[in-house]
Specification:
Length: 369
C-alpha cells in the first residue's frame, strides 16, 4: 500500500507541474498573437525568432519534467538562430523542430488542461483506497490510476516532442559541417607545427652540418687537426638533426603506437612524463585493436593531458584508464592538481577537442579550482 501511495504522490506532483505548465501555455497564446501581428505587419518580424527561442525553452522545461518521471531523456535537436534578422527568420520558420514544438503546443493546450481535472482524484483516491484497503483488505484502485495517468501524459509528450527524422538529419549535417571545419583547422595547425619544427630544428642543424663539412674540406689539406674537429662537430650536428627528425615523426604518428599498440604507447608516455602514473589498460592489450586513427587520437589526448598535469597540476601523481565501450574507446585521465583548466585560455584543450571531434568523439573536462 505505502509503495503505491509513494508512487501516486510522485504521479500527482508530476501531473500538478504538467497542469501548471499547460496553464502557462494558454497564457503563451497572447505572445503568439503579438508575434503574429508583428510578423504580418513586418514591423515586428524580429519577434518571431525570439518567440521561437522562448518556445524552445518551454519545450526544454517540459522535456526535463518528462525525463524526471520516465527516466528517459527526449533528444534535443536545435539549430542556432544566429545571423541577420532575415536569416534568423528563415531558420526559425524552416527548422523542423519549430513545427514539432508547435504541434506539441497545440495538443498540449487540450490534453494538458484535462490534467487539472484529475488532481482532485488524489485526496479522494486516498480516502477511497484507505477505506477499500483498510476495511476490505483489497488492493488500491484509484491511486494506480493516478500513476497510469502520469505515464499516459508522459508518453503523449514524448511522442509529440520527439525530433522528426528530418530534424535529426538537419542537426547531423550541421554537426558534421562543424566537425569538418574543426578537422580542417586542426590539420592546418598540425601542418604549421611540423613546418615550424622542421624549419627551426632539423633544417637548422642540417645547414650547420653543411657549413662544417664545407669548412672541413677546405681545412683538410693545410690543417688536418682543425678539419677533424670540424668533422666531429658535423657528426654532432647530424645526430641532433636525426633526433629532431625523430621528434617530428613521433609528432605525426609515434612508431611505438604502431609497434606496441595503444597500451604500450601510453605506458611509455607514463614512464617519461615525470609523474607517478598508474595505467589501467582495461583489457585493451588483448583482443582486436581500434582503428589507427582512433588509437592516434587517444594517444595524443593522453599525452596532452599528462603534459598538462605535469606542467600545471603541481602534484606528482596521475592516473590513466583505457576501456572499450559499446560505441568505441574511452580514455580517462585524472590528477589531483590545482585545477582551473580553461579551454579559452590556451590551444591544448581546443586542439584535443578538434582532433577527437573529427572522429565523432567527445571530450568532457572537469577541472574545479
Amino acid at each position: 500500500m505505502w509503495k503505491t501511495v509513494r508512487r501516486a504522490v510522485g504521479a500527482t506532483v508530476h501531473l500538478a507541474a504538467a497542469a501548471a505548465m499547460a496553464f502557462g501555455m494558454w497564457i503563451f497564446v497572447a505572445v503568439l498573437l503579438i508575434t503574429a501581428t508583428g510578423t504580418v505587419t513586418v514591423v515586428g518580424a524580429w519577434l518571431l525568432p525570439e518567440t521561437v527561442l522562448l518556445l524552445r525553452r518551454i519545450a526544454g522545461a517540459k522535456r526535463s519534467l518528462t525525463a524526471r518521471w520516465t527516466g528517459v531523456r527526449i533528444p534535443e535537436v536545435y539549430q542556432p538562430l544566429i545571423g541577420t534578422v532575415r536569416e534568423r527568420l528563415a531558420k526559425a520558420v524552416r527548422h523542423p523542430g519549430t513545427h514539432t514544438y508547435l504541434r506539441w503546443m497545440v495538443a498540449y493546450w487540450f490534453y494538458g488542461a484535462l490534467l487539472a481535472f484529475a488532481l482532485p482524484l488524489w485526496p479522494l483516491g486516498l480516502v477511497v483506497d484507505g477505506v477499500w484497503c483498510g476495511l476490505l483488505r483489497r488492493e488500491a484502485i484509484v491511486l494506480p490510476l493516478m500513476v497510469r495517468l502520469a505515464d499516459l501524459e508522459a508518453d503523449w509528450s514524448t511522442a509529440l516532442m520527439k525530433p522528426s527524422p528530418q530534424a535529426r538529419l538537419t542537426a547531423r549535417v550541421a554537426e558534421l559541417a562543424a566537425t569538418r571545419a574543426d578537422a580542417i583547422a586542426a590539420h592546418g595547425a598540425e601542418l604549421r607545427r611540423i613546418e615550424r619544427d622542421l624549419h627551426d630544428g632539423a633544417q637548422a642543424h642540417l645547414v650547420a652540418l653543411s657549413v662544417r663539412i664545407g669548412l672541413a674540406k677546405r681545412a683538410y689539406d693545410r690543417d688536418p687537426e682543425t678539419a677533424r674537429k670540424l668533422l666531429d662537430e658535423a657528426q654532432g650536428q647530424a645526430e641532433q638533426a636525426l633526433a629532431e627528425l625523430r621528434h617530428v615523426v613521433r609528432g605525426i604518428h609515434p612508431p611505438i603506437l604502431t609497434d606496441g599498440g595503444l597500451v604500450g604507447a601510453v605506458r611509455a608516455l607514463a614512464a617519461s612524463s615525470g609523474l607517478e602514473v598508474v595505467v589501467d589498460d582495461g583489457g585493451l592489450a588483448e583482443g582486436v585493436r581500434a582503428p589507427a586513427a582512433v588509437e592516434a587520437a587517444a594517444y595524443f589526448v593522453a599525452a596532452e593531458a599528462m603534459t598538462n598535469a605535469a606542467k600545471y597540476g603541481g602534484v606528482p601523481r596521475a592516473e590513466v584508464r583505457l576501456a572499450r565501450t559499446r560505441r568505441g574507446l574511452r580514455v580517462w585521465v585524472r590528477d589531483e592538481g590545482r585545477g582551473g583548466a580553461d579551454e579559452a585560455g590556451g590551444s591544448g584543450l581546443l586542439g584535443m577537442r578538434r582532433r577527437v571531434a573529427a572522429l565523432d568523439g567527445t571530450i568532457e573536462v572537469s577541472s574545479p579550482v
